[in-house]
Amino acid sequence: MFIMSEDSQRTQGRDAQSSNIMAGKAVAESVRTTLGPRGMDKMLVDSGGDVVITNDGATILNEMDIEHPAAQMIVEVSDSQEEEVGDGTTTAAVLAGNLLGEAEDLIEQDVHATTIVEGYHEASEIALEAIAEQVNEADVDDEILRQVAESCMTGKGTGGLTAESLAETVVDAIRHVDTDAGVARDNVTVHTQIGASSNATELVPGIIVDEEPAHDGMPSEVEDASIAILDVELGVRTGDVDAEYAIDSIDQLNAAIDAEEGELEGYAETVAESGADVVFTTEDVNDRVANALANEGVLVFEGLGDSDARQVASATGARRVGDLDDLEESDFGSADRIHTETYGDDDLAFVEGGAAAETVTVFVRGGTEHIVDELERAIGDALDVVATALESGEVVPGAGATEIAIADKIRQEAAGIEGRKQLAVTAFADAVDIIPRTLAANTGRDPIDVLVDLRAAHESEGRAGLITSGDEVTIDDPFEHGVVDPADVKREAVESATEAATMIARIDDVIAAE
Ligand code: ADP
Ligand code: MG
């Protein structure tokens, strides 16, 4: 008896398990070479020929357009890592892939999937304890925050900018939005600008929008600005133009023109008289209205995108107005200074200070589109990790040291676990080793030798990572070298990788509709 459509495909038992595991492993494998400060970048070209060059795990996996459902679950690991903590996306995907690889070996040894799942869960609890033991004792101060930012950006394509100088800017930005109620991460935005040779970053106390004045005669700078945001077209509405004028004489034509001019003047007058000296509108502004407003010294930006309008509104405290008749001073927002600047072919409007000073923009310039795109991702990640570290006050040693500590603790505790589950717990520790092994491989070191040395140094010193500093690679205490990651990044990686790997391992029946 058929209960499914004849076209549907079904894979069961070991076949289903091994095909899912293989797909998951393959995905994780694809990002392995990008891990760490010496990780390589990937160039992804889509069907339209658009090119993305990146070192970021989540970005790579999303650009890869992965279809296999089990493989897709690894992409989700990386996505949730990005969403929750903003970094560690490669680590999480690589770990998930290796947990699957170890699970495959266990299945071949006839360890049941349920036992693997139980063992993995138990091991991940031990991993979380190990992470807690590695947390710094000193307070997370600006120095440590800079280290967190720098560790996150080292090895990313940051153009001519050093991770060190960017780290400083990133910490300043997060400090700026650190309030009693927590870190308002959303109040930090990154604005990138492609510019020939310049490689400066700057912190703008406010926001930047890609806009130019609606008229050349308008001021390029307004101080103490009263800001109106309109969703109103300042021109003759098309509906009015279509209204039929039965024009029989020149007088009537003149009257019609006068009426139109009167209407346009009316707009300019209403705006000027309202007291607003800067206007952002999402609609168009007629040239004559713009000219009249320019004469009044009002700075107008037209055709604003909805998200820019929202950003200006939230930064300056302005309320958007949909009908000119409703325009009142109470709707205005404020800023200390609004000015426009030209960068190459682009004009930018800076809205700074006053109410807008609660938000802050990291203004970055880079040589090409690819550089600024990767810079934007790197800075975005760094802002996330600094916010995470500041909020929790917890950082752990990077450079593989925390993973060495996790694997060591799991192996010790595995001795006390009975039966086949012990195999699964130990397998988890073997999977965690992939991180220091990969860091070693990506720096051109022998993974086995490095692993042995790291374990020995961990045994004697309690903290040991494979530190990359300039051209040198050494085994030492990462805290001494400022290589630190937020504890939450490691926790999230362990949890999300375990969840995905156990979920995939438990599947023994795949039914796919055609
Ligand atoms: P992910 O997407 O997982 O964040 P990355 O490519 O950013 O992948 O690599 C992160 C790893 O690199 C972390 O384990 C971090 O501790 C390590 N790391 C960062 N800076 C250094 C350094 N200077 N030396 C060695 N390891 C480092
Ligand atoms: Mg990273």
Automatic annotation (TrEMBL):
Top-level taxon in the UniProt lineage: Archaea
Any matching Pfam family: Cpn60_TCP1
A GO MF term: unfolded protein binding
Renumbered residue ranges of the record's region Disordered: 1-20
Keywords: ATP-binding, Chaperone, Nucleotide-binding
PROSITE patterns on file: TCP1_1, TCP1_2, TCP1_3
InterPro entries in the cross-refs: Chaperone_TCP-1 (IPR017998), Chaperonin_TCP-1_CS (IPR002194), Cpn60/GroEL/TCP-1 (IPR002423), GroEL-like_apical_dom_sf (IPR027409), GROEL-like_equatorial_sf (IPR027413), TCP-1-like_intermed_sf (IPR027410), TCP-1_chaperonin (IPR053374), thermosome_alpha (IPR054827)
Record-stated family: Belongs to the TCP-1 chaperonin family.
Name of the protein in question: Chaperonin Cpn60/TCP-1
Native species: Natrinema versiforme JCM 10478
